[in-house]
């Protein structure tokens, strides 16, 4: 018997490892764009899911953003059916809020979430690879992002509100491996022109920056960036747990919002203090603070000399005696 192609074997192994965490009898949905990553994922899922007693379906979202996208979506669904998946194509109207890319992402995740709930699926599988993770970390570094962003994408995450579980089985697999796996399985991926359009920063990172880093610093840079993400993910999780433990005791309701004890904030190291401040604004006012805004609020604790209220996105912070008080208002988003 000829031995299995190594790329195909690697993708199947990665998918088997992810799927084995799911209860037998449940359904998984592959988010299938038709590109090489999600196509390799779909083929491996079709192969591995039945062996684990899982039912497998695919959902392809047609964003309608370019000519022929409907045919590409139907072709992906046809391939999914040939592979043995139960395919679904959903067309969406993409708005413009936040730019077409962000709007398309929003619409896509909405469709996937609805499909997961309709099918009572145990998980939705996404085709992000190690290369996607490395690109995310580099883009984050270039923006001066904090540990939460540099932690990149989670291999396994459950939405707080919808309860949908998202798995990324290929997060440790190189993109070239998914391309090779498709070739070995004689699958013909759809190549999204957006993925070559170098007006996008991510495309420039993919096509020029990462290859340059790998050629100048030696191979293994992408793997190293992905390892950084993994380590920061552990750190970020530890901080989240600490915040959850601390916050109940130090936050109290205030007149038009919420207040934190100055003494409690001062007692925490800066890394935790700053996260508590950001967490309170995020959970209470659904806004994100920049680093400089966070530091300005922290000075109400560490460097208070009677400064007035600080306008922040969605709220206002001020020192009131032994408290830092956050109240609705401020500069808006
Ligand atoms: N139109 C879509 N329909 C369904 N799922 C999608 C769609 N676009 C992206 N996804 C899911 O999100 C993942 C990441 O999307 P991204 O845009 O980074 O990948 P892609 O360029 O479409 O390539 P690939 O399919 O090779 O991953 C995909 O692997 C896929 O699982």
Automatic annotation (TrEMBL):
**Binding residues annotated for ATP, in chain numbering:** 33-38
Entries under InterPro entries matching the protein:
Rossmann-like_a/b/a_fold, TilS/TtcA_N, tRNA_Ile_lys_synt, tRNA_Ile_lys_synt_N, tRNA_Ile_lys_synt_subst-bd
Entry's family note: Belongs to the tRNA(Ile)-lysidine synthase family.
**Free-text note regarding domains:** The N-terminal region contains the highly conserved SGGXDS motif, predicted to be a P-loop motif involved in ATP binding.
HAMAP family listed in its UniProt record: tRNA_Ile_lys_synt
Location in or out of the cell: Cytoplasm
What task does this protein carry out?
Answer: Ligates lysine onto the cytidine present at position 34 of the AUA codon-specific tRNA(Ile) that contains the anticodon CAU, in an ATP-dependent manner. Cytidine is converted to lysidine, thus changing the amino acid specificity of the tRNA from methionine to isoleucine.
Q: Where is the tRNA(Ile)-lysidine/2-thiocytidine synthase N-terminal domain?
A: 28-207
| Top-level taxonomic group | Bacteria
Any Pfam family from its record, for instance, is ATP_bind_3
- List each copy of the tRNA(Ile)-lysidine synthase substrate-binding domain by range: 261-319
Q: Which residues form a coiled coil?
A: 222-249
Tell me what this protein is called.
Answer: tRNA(Ile)-lysidine synthase
- UniProt KW Nucleotidyltransferase keyword: no
Q: Which UniProt keywords apply?
A: ATP-binding, Coiled coil, Cytoplasm, Ligase, Nucleotide-binding, tRNA processing
Q: What is its EC number?
A: 6.3.4.19
Task: Tell me what reaction this enzyme catalyses.
Answer: cytidine(34) in tRNA(Ile2) + L-lysine + ATP = lysidine(34) in tRNA(Ile2) + AMP + diphosphate + H(+)
């Amino acid at each position: 018997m000829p031995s299995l192609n190594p790329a195909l074997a690697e993708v199947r192994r990665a998918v088997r490892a992810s799927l084995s965490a799911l209860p037998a009898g449940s359904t998984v949905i592959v988010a299938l764009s038709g590109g090489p990553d999600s196509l390799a994922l779909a083929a491996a899922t079709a192969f591995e899911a039945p062996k684990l007693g899982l039912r497998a379906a695919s959902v392809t979202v047609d964003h309608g953003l370019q000519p022929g996208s409907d045919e590409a979506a139907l072709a992906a669904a046809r391939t999914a059916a040939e592979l043995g998946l139960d395919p679904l194509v959903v067309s969406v109207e993409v708005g413009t809020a936040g730019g077409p890319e962000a709007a398309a992402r929003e619409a896509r995740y909405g469709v996937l979430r609805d499909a997961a709930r309709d099918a009572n699926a145990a998980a939705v599988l996404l085709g992000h690879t190690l290369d996607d993770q490395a690109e995310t970390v580099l883009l984050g570094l270039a923006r001066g992002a904090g540990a939460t962003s540099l932690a990149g994408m989670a291999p396994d995450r459950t939405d707080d509100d919808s309860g949908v579980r998202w798995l990324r089985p290929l997060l440790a697999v190189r993109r070239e491996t998914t391309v090779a796996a498709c070739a070995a399985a004689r699958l013909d991926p759809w190549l999204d022109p957006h993925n070559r359009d170098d007006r996008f920063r991510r495309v420039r990172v993919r096509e020029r920056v990462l290859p340059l880093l790998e050629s100048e610093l030696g191979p293994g840079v992408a793997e190293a960036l992905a390892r950084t993400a993994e380590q920061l993910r552990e750190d970020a999780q530890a901080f989240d747990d600490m915040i959850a433990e601390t916050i109940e005791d130090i936050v109290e309701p205030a007149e038009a919002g919420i207040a934190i004890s100055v003494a409690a904030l001062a007692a925490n190291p800066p890394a935790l203090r700053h996260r508590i401040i950001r967490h309170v604004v995020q959970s209470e006012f659904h806004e994100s603070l920049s680093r400089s805004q966070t530091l300005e609020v922290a000075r109400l604790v560490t460097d208070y000399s009677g400064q007035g209220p600080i306008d922040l996105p969605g709220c206002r912070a001020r020192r009131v005696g032994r408290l830092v008080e956050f109240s609705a208002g401020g500069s808006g988003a």
